[in-house]
Amino acid sequence: MEHTVIFQPSGRRGKVPEGTTILDAARKLGVGIEAVCGEKMVCGKCRVKVMEGKFAKDGITSSMVHLSAHAAKEKKILKADEVKEGIRLACATEVGGDVLLFVPEASRAGEQVVRKAAGKIKVRLNPAVRKYYVELPIPSLEDPLGDFERLKNALQEKHDLKKLSIDFGVLKVLPDILRKAEWNVTVTVWQNSEVIRVEPGKEEVNIGLAVDIGSTTVAGYLTDLNTGEVLTTESMMNPQVRYGDDVMSRITHCMLNEETGLKELQTTIIDGLNTIIKKATNKVGRQPEDISEMTIVGNTAMHHILLGINPEFMGVAPFTPALHESIDIKAERLGIHMLPTGNIHILPIEAGFVGADNVGCLLADTPYKRDEMTLFIDIGTNGELNLGNKDKIISSSCATGPALEGAQIEYGMRAAPGAIEKIKIDPDTYEAKYKVIGDDRWSDGKTNMQTKGICGSGILDGIAEMFLAGIIKKNGQINTGIQSPRIRKGAKGIDEYVVAWSHETSIGEDVSITLKDVRAIQLAKGAIYAGCIIMMRKLGIDKFDRLIIAGAFGSHINKLSAMAIGMFPDCHIDKVKSIGNAAGDGARIALLNVNKRKEANKIARKVKYIELGLEEDFNDRFSEAMQFPHMFTKFPHLEGIVPAEPQEVA
Amino acid sequence: MAFTEKETELINKLKDDVINYKVEDAKKHAQEAVNAKVDAYTMTMEGLAGGMAVVSEKFDSHEYFVPETLLCAKALYAALDILKPHIKMQKGAVRGQVVLGVLQGDVHDLGKNLIKAVFEAAGWTVHDLGRDVPLQKFVDEQMRTDSDIVMLSALMTTSMVGMKKVIPMIREKNPNVKIMIGGAPISEKTVEEFGADSTADNAPNALQEAIHMVDVLKKGEMTAK
């Protein structure tokens, strides 16, 4: 009897025979779990969390009762509250039913690679919070003015700040601080209107955090508000992935678990943000309380869940969000451990699926200020498209699925050491060489590269190379007529192309790209392409001046590969630029300049949202675009790169 | 049943047109069939539906994917439009009636349209409610038409949740109706969990399931009598 085991956050899944330990299942599926003591139930490094409940997207019901009972030794290592929370030791626990397991950061072997590095941005410094040093006159019987008024007078005289208010929590401690500091204090003022912190003496350090909450990755940029410099970047897998890979499955989790679902997801992301804050401030020798302002971007579902707003209604047609405009909320109200009275600014939402992350992208690239026509593609688990210039901008959203991020791919994995990220195929010999993350060498077919799987950019590269070498036909089929040991029928009877032989891997299996993987990429790229051309039609244009690719994966994308498979309409390759995590850049811009927040609100309402699903011919355009590079449309700029089309045999 | 030479020739032509998604040829051969006064129902069943069955085999063996399947359906529709007015409604020719639609909150109707094409080609009466269909409408339409089967489609997991609500609503009004669910997030487990009767992973399989379910229904009626 076999059971389904799914590991999050890697998303690896597979079937294992009854009685397999979780650790063995992890090895079989290429999931790295620490096992320092050699499975002796001593080190306790292999802790995993067993998720309880129905997971509609994965089609399983996961439960603790699907696992062997606690061994006495295991119980000694686990704390009582850990047992209660469903923590198990992977080495000691046997599988007896379907389970979904979350591997906590501490148990994960091999570091995740940050694919959301901060980009270069140009912005005038005008942060929402500023620090002012004042020396107050000491009160006396002749001058018994209240402490706050005394502070206000000094701030007005010295810094021309008028009509200030004070946070209630700060007011309560004000008298003590002023006296302890002997009346020389640094005051943190938000938006020139509210006192949110009073520190003794002169304190110049003023830092903020810009956050991008992606469905898959969360990145925080700790930023010096005096200089605009990024002090450090901290990123992690979005811990919500344990409730589902994509936005829809998380919304469904909230719907199916009415009482608890939303709260669970909200707590999970807030805990995640607190971890980022702690790690980031720690790295630069500061305290979490030193963060006095935060800006956040994220798609609409991430936005609603973070705020504890029911995401159900934005998750079904007509996809209405709770609100469009940006929100300012004090950190203490969300339980985020920065300066409690500090403000969190969440950028505005455009439409159902096009959220604050897209607004961030627009702020970073400012297509709405340009004369040139820009086509902007933000690739994530959900794809967002923008098209326009200073006169008009339209946007849309398409479900690309997690395939482009390496999930739901036979040997797919997220970007981590051991993941194939680049592939080259010789069109004459059909031989492959590849590069894995964490290793500069190209494979030679003999060396053990410690290969574990293929990440998103590797899949894209591999499929493009297979197409260019003639291994994949225009319609996506694998050309099994080719004589090569790499082209074969796989274990499940599905055609596949072997990229890495088992002796090159650490999982002891050949790593291949299967026909099913090709199909998943066809769906994703077809959706993006169809979205692009429908939007171009809406604006009445047949070409654009610049094409920008963004997203965590955007900065690592091979432009030519993406174009060769027909992910976007034909254009000169020089027009294509990948700019990395533009959404995160937008969050940083809003952190550094308050005027940009107003600009964001204006833009969010200016952009016209197009619901692609409502377009009469979307299905037709979508299905034509699933072929490589397209069923009908020619790609003049690919001439000489793409193999000449063989006559289709009817 | 033995066919005349002309019938066999036209059946094979229509079949090939569907399999090779030749829309114009499909139209031409459908017209030829009408002109030759051969039985339109036979042409539809043996030619068009027969072709679609081959397409589904090709889909199963991964030879065809969504684009090809959709084009095949287009060729089928083009020919069906021409043949339909000439189909003589014999007693028992209609296999059954289905109510079909994509659940509220969902506008993805590619799968639903394929189902419709295959069922219509196979001589079923399809009451297509379209997409983003309010739950109560499924109940009302079933009652109005007294259809044998209600087919619910959803691509998104969020809209799939609606199935859990609508299935008891339909059963309450008519406990005998069969309910089939389909779409990317649907599995055998979902069928069990939501209390549906069955699912299928592609249109021709759905047709097989439907024929089977209606047979069961009819047997049930006979036993009752």
Descriptive account of the structure:
The complex is a heterodimer of chains A (650) and B (225). With 650 residues, chain A is an alpha/beta fold. Chain A folds into five domains: 106 residues, Beta-grasp domain (Ubiquitin-like (UB roll)); 72 residues, Ubiquitin-like (UB roll), CATH 3.10.20; 150 residues, Domain of unknown function (DUF4445) (Nucleotidyltransferase, domain 5, 2-Layer Sandwich), CATH 3.30.420; 143 residues, Nucleotidyltransferase, domain 5 (2-Layer Sandwich), CATH 3.30.420; 118 residues, no CATH class. Helices cover 27% and strands 23% of the residues of chain A. Chain A has 17 helices and 29 strands. A six-stranded mixed β-sheet of chain A has the order 14-13-12-15-17-16, with helices on both faces. A six-stranded mixed β-sheet of chain A has the order 28-27-18-19-20-29, with helices on one face. A five-stranded mixed β-sheet of chain A has the order 2-1-7-3-6. In chain A, a hairpin with a 6-residue loop joins strand 21 and strand 22. In chain A, helix 6 packs across helix 7 and helix 15 crosses helix 16. The radius of gyration of chain A is 27 Å and the shape is globular. By secondary structure, chain B is an alpha/beta fold. Chain B has two domains: 82 residues, Methionine synthase domain (Methyltransferase, Methionine Synthase (B12-binding Domains), Chain A, domain 1, Orthogonal Bundle), CATH 1.10.1240.10; 128 residues, 3-Layer(aba) Sandwich (Rossmann fold), CATH 3.40.50. Chain B is built from nine helices and five strands, in the order H-H-H-H-E-H-E-H-E-H-E-H-E-H. Chain B has a five-stranded parallel β-sheet with strand order 2-1-3-4-5, with helices on both faces. In chain B, helix 8 links the parallel strand 4 and strand 5. In chain B, helix 1 runs antiparallel to helix 2, helix 1 packs antiparallel against helix 4 and helix 3 packs antiparallel against helix 4. The mean pLDDT of chain B is 86. The interface between A and B is medium-sized, with 39 and 31 residues.
